[in-house]
Amino acid sequence: MHLHTNIRISSDLDSQMDFCRSMKEEAIGLIESISPVDYFDNRHGPSILVFDSHFNPALAPMHEDYDINAIDIETNTPSPLWVYLISKCDLAISKLGRFGDMDQEDIYALFRAGLSIDEFRTKAMEAADYAVGQSGLPSKIEYAISMYKELMEEL
Description:
The chain starts with a helix and ends with a helix. The strands form 2 sheets. A 3-stranded mixed sheet has the order 1-3-2, with no helix packed on it. The protein has 6 helices and 5 strands; from the N terminus they run αβαββββαααα. By secondary structure, it is α+β, with helices and mostly antiparallel strands. The longest helix is centred in the C-terminal third of the chain and has 18 residues, at 137-154. The protein has helices spanning 2-5, 24-32, 88-94, 101-112, 117-128, 137-154, and strands spanning 12-13, 37-41, 45-51, 71-74, 83-85. α3 crosses α5.
Protein backbone atom coordinates (compact mmCIF):
# COMPACT_ATOMS: atom_id res chain seq x y z
CA MET A 1 0.00 0.00 0.00
CA HIS A 2 2.70 2.45 0.98
CA LEU A 3 4.52 2.29 -2.35
CA HIS A 4 1.28 3.02 -4.25
CA THR A 5 -0.37 5.51 -1.91
CA ASN A 6 2.12 6.72 0.72
CA ILE A 7 -0.65 6.52 3.35
CA ARG A 8 0.53 3.88 5.78
CA ILE A 9 3.35 1.49 6.49
CA SER A 10 2.93 -2.17 7.34
CA SER A 11 5.18 -3.99 9.76
CA ASP A 12 5.30 -7.11 7.59
CA LEU A 13 6.48 -7.81 4.07
CA ASP A 14 4.13 -9.98 2.04
CA SER A 15 6.11 -11.68 -0.70
CA GLN A 16 5.66 -14.43 -3.23
CA MET A 17 8.81 -16.33 -4.20
CA ASP A 18 9.12 -18.20 -7.47
CA PHE A 19 12.16 -20.35 -8.15
CA CYS A 20 13.19 -23.35 -10.22
CA ARG A 21 13.00 -26.76 -8.58
CA SER A 22 16.76 -27.25 -8.69
CA MET A 23 17.15 -24.16 -6.47
CA LYS A 24 14.47 -25.13 -3.93
CA GLU A 25 16.84 -25.82 -1.02
CA GLU A 26 18.76 -22.59 -1.62
CA ALA A 27 15.53 -20.59 -1.89
CA ILE A 28 14.16 -22.01 1.36
CA GLY A 29 17.48 -21.24 3.06
CA LEU A 30 17.33 -17.67 1.75
CA ILE A 31 13.79 -17.19 3.03
CA GLU A 32 14.64 -18.59 6.44
CA SER A 33 17.69 -16.31 6.74
CA ILE A 34 15.81 -13.05 6.20
CA SER A 35 16.29 -10.95 9.32
CA PRO A 36 13.88 -8.28 10.58
CA VAL A 37 14.80 -4.70 9.60
CA ASP A 38 14.75 -1.92 12.18
CA TYR A 39 13.52 1.49 11.02
CA PHE A 40 12.08 4.68 12.46
CA ASP A 41 8.44 5.42 11.65
CA ASN A 42 7.64 9.13 12.12
CA ARG A 43 4.19 8.27 13.46
CA HIS A 44 4.97 5.22 15.61
CA GLY A 45 8.66 5.61 16.46
CA PRO A 46 11.11 2.69 16.37
CA SER A 47 9.62 -0.14 14.30
CA ILE A 48 10.54 -3.48 12.78
CA LEU A 49 9.78 -4.80 9.28
CA VAL A 50 9.52 -8.59 9.22
CA PHE A 51 9.19 -11.02 6.34
CA ASP A 52 5.79 -12.74 6.48
CA SER A 53 6.68 -16.37 5.82
CA HIS A 54 2.99 -17.36 5.99
CA PHE A 55 1.77 -15.04 3.20
CA ASN A 56 -0.05 -16.93 0.46
CA PRO A 57 -1.57 -15.10 -2.54
CA ALA A 58 -4.09 -17.94 -2.96
CA LEU A 59 -5.91 -16.89 0.23
CA ALA A 60 -7.22 -13.63 -1.24
CA PRO A 61 -9.13 -13.13 -4.47
CA MET A 62 -6.61 -12.41 -7.22
CA HIS A 63 -6.90 -11.75 -10.93
CA GLU A 64 -5.34 -14.58 -12.90
CA ASP A 65 -2.81 -12.20 -14.46
CA TYR A 66 -1.66 -10.49 -11.24
CA ASP A 67 1.89 -11.73 -11.74
CA ILE A 68 2.00 -10.57 -15.38
CA ASN A 69 0.59 -7.14 -14.39
CA ALA A 70 3.18 -6.66 -11.63
CA ILE A 71 5.47 -3.63 -11.96
CA ASP A 72 9.19 -4.27 -12.46
CA ILE A 73 11.21 -2.76 -9.62
CA GLU A 74 14.50 -4.60 -9.97
CA THR A 75 14.83 -7.08 -12.82
CA ASN A 76 17.29 -8.22 -15.45
CA THR A 77 20.25 -7.75 -13.16
CA PRO A 78 23.10 -10.17 -12.51
CA SER A 79 21.34 -10.97 -9.21
CA PRO A 80 19.11 -14.06 -9.16
CA LEU A 81 16.57 -12.01 -7.20
CA TRP A 82 14.12 -9.97 -9.25
CA VAL A 83 11.65 -7.67 -7.48
CA TYR A 84 8.16 -6.77 -8.65
CA LEU A 85 5.37 -4.70 -7.08
CA ILE A 86 1.75 -5.82 -7.36
CA SER A 87 -0.31 -3.41 -9.49
CA LYS A 88 -2.79 -1.01 -7.86
CA CYS A 89 -5.70 -2.88 -9.40
CA ASP A 90 -4.56 -6.32 -8.27
CA LEU A 91 -3.83 -5.01 -4.78
CA ALA A 92 -7.36 -3.55 -4.62
CA ILE A 93 -8.85 -6.87 -5.78
CA SER A 94 -6.97 -8.71 -3.05
CA LYS A 95 -8.57 -6.38 -0.48
CA LEU A 96 -12.05 -7.65 -1.44
CA GLY A 97 -11.54 -10.99 0.32
CA ARG A 98 -11.60 -9.77 3.92
CA PHE A 99 -13.14 -6.39 3.01
CA GLY A 100 -12.89 -4.94 6.51
CA ASP A 101 -12.84 -1.21 7.24
CA MET A 102 -9.08 -0.94 6.61
CA ASP A 103 -9.40 -2.89 3.35
CA GLN A 104 -12.13 -0.54 2.14
CA GLU A 105 -10.03 2.51 3.06
CA ASP A 106 -7.12 0.97 1.16
CA ILE A 107 -9.27 0.53 -1.96
CA TYR A 108 -10.42 4.17 -1.75
CA ALA A 109 -6.79 5.27 -1.34
CA LEU A 110 -5.83 3.28 -4.44
CA PHE A 111 -8.63 5.02 -6.39
CA ARG A 112 -7.31 8.40 -5.18
CA ALA A 113 -3.82 7.32 -6.26
CA GLY A 114 -4.99 6.80 -9.84
CA LEU A 115 -6.64 3.38 -10.00
CA SER A 116 -9.34 3.51 -12.66
CA ILE A 117 -12.82 2.52 -11.48
CA ASP A 118 -13.47 0.89 -14.87
CA GLU A 119 -10.27 -1.18 -14.72
CA PHE A 120 -11.03 -2.21 -11.14
CA ARG A 121 -14.59 -3.25 -11.96
CA THR A 122 -13.57 -5.21 -15.09
CA LYS A 123 -10.65 -7.09 -13.56
CA ALA A 124 -12.37 -7.67 -10.22
CA MET A 125 -15.43 -9.14 -11.97
CA GLU A 126 -13.11 -11.39 -13.98
CA ALA A 127 -11.47 -12.52 -10.72
CA ALA A 128 -14.92 -13.13 -9.20
CA ASP A 129 -15.65 -15.68 -11.93
CA TYR A 130 -13.06 -18.11 -10.57
CA ALA A 131 -12.33 -17.02 -6.98
CA VAL A 132 -12.89 -19.98 -4.67
CA GLY A 133 -15.16 -19.33 -1.70
CA GLN A 134 -15.77 -15.71 -2.69
CA SER A 135 -19.42 -15.76 -3.81
CA GLY A 136 -20.09 -12.21 -2.57
CA LEU A 137 -17.39 -10.50 -4.64
CA PRO A 138 -19.67 -8.77 -7.19
CA SER A 139 -21.61 -7.00 -4.43
CA LYS A 140 -18.38 -5.99 -2.65
CA ILE A 141 -17.01 -4.60 -5.94
CA GLU A 142 -20.09 -2.47 -6.56
CA TYR A 143 -20.26 -1.40 -2.91
CA ALA A 144 -16.62 -0.24 -2.93
CA ILE A 145 -17.18 1.76 -6.11
CA SER A 146 -20.44 3.37 -4.95
CA MET A 147 -19.02 4.29 -1.53
CA TYR A 148 -15.93 5.84 -3.15
CA LYS A 149 -18.12 7.88 -5.50
CA GLU A 150 -20.19 9.06 -2.52
CA LEU A 151 -17.05 10.07 -0.64
CA MET A 152 -15.84 12.05 -3.66
CA GLU A 153 -19.20 13.84 -3.98
CA GLU A 154 -18.97 14.94 -0.34
CA LEU A 155 -15.59 16.60 -0.90
